[in-house]
Amino acid sequence: MKKQILITIVITASLTFFGTRFFVSHAHKNTGHTEQHEDHGDEHGSEFSYSPEILKEFGIQIGTASGGVLEQKIELPGEIQIDPDRLAHITPRFDGVIKEVFKQMGESVKKDDLLAIIESNESLTTYELHSSMDGVIIDMHFTKGETAQRPDHFFAVADLSEVWVNLSVYQKFLSKISLGQPVKITVNSAFSQIGKISYVSPTLDEHTRTATARVVLRNEDGKFRPGQFITGNVVVHQSIFDVIIPKTALETIDGKSVVFVKNQNGFEPVAVEIGKENQNNVEIISGLNAGQKYVSEGGFILKAQLAKGSFGGGHGH
Questions:
Q1: Burial of 189 (0-12, 13-18, 19+ CB in 10 A)
Q2: What structural domains and CATH numbers belong to the chain?
Q3: Calpha distance 201→209 (Å, rounded)
Q4: Does the pLDDT at position 37 exceed 50?
Q5: Angle, vertex CA 67, rays to CA 65 and CA 72, nearest 5
Q6: What pTM value is reported for the model?
Q7: Residue 249: is it exposed, middle or buried by C-beta count within 10 angstroms (0-12/13-18/19+)?
């Protein structure tokens, strides 16, 4: 942990140092132009004007303020499970000796595929054991030469083309969960899929004190595997606002939330009032109007230069 903190400090210090040198040298590249505007230093001391090359060099991104839909979500833990109606335990009809086994665990089977041949202990005649459905063998206890007995010996065949996602809903969130709500199911940040809540349990688990919300997902490619732990982001509210910006645009100066807004002289920090927010975006109530250009990412670079007073006496172009 200490090593990570030290690395972060070194990277930040280096970025600030070299950023300052780059900006300052660029600002004084054209001495005659700087002198021409030096009388305006006090008037626009916190305004910076940069060329597109500088913005690109330091990863400063410019956006246009606009309205849109702000989704408020809650995050719930969950697990991929097999739909019980898509799981079959295929057992021998009569106890007997297993003469042949034709399928192994992990193999795909079709309905009526031959799984094994068993010799009945009572009649001493052989009979065949067939799959009762399409699917994949996820478990089996069948070995040639053994005596097959119910229920110890079986083939477990599951149709995984569709799976259940059971989400654990804490009591404080129950009032916000309802049928039909969209849910983004994510597995280890590797992939995700959108589904809808199709069931909410009427009772709570006596041990976890949580309810279960179920999402049914199509799974033809098999990327969702029973037993996987997942994260479900449930959309609990949607609102339309005049101005919504990413949280990466917000900086804090003198205890106030600010956005670097573009005007005729460059960029200047403007205090904004924020409203509703979610994990990524925030509503702007005042300080930034729709259609205005602003720094959507990389504003910390401008904030660092402002704090150092690197542009206190003129404009960098």
A1: exposed
A2: 11-71+240-308 (2.40.420.20), 72-82+162-238 (2.40.30.170), 84-158 (2.40.50.100)
A3: 12
A4: no
A5: 115
A6: 0.66
A7: buried
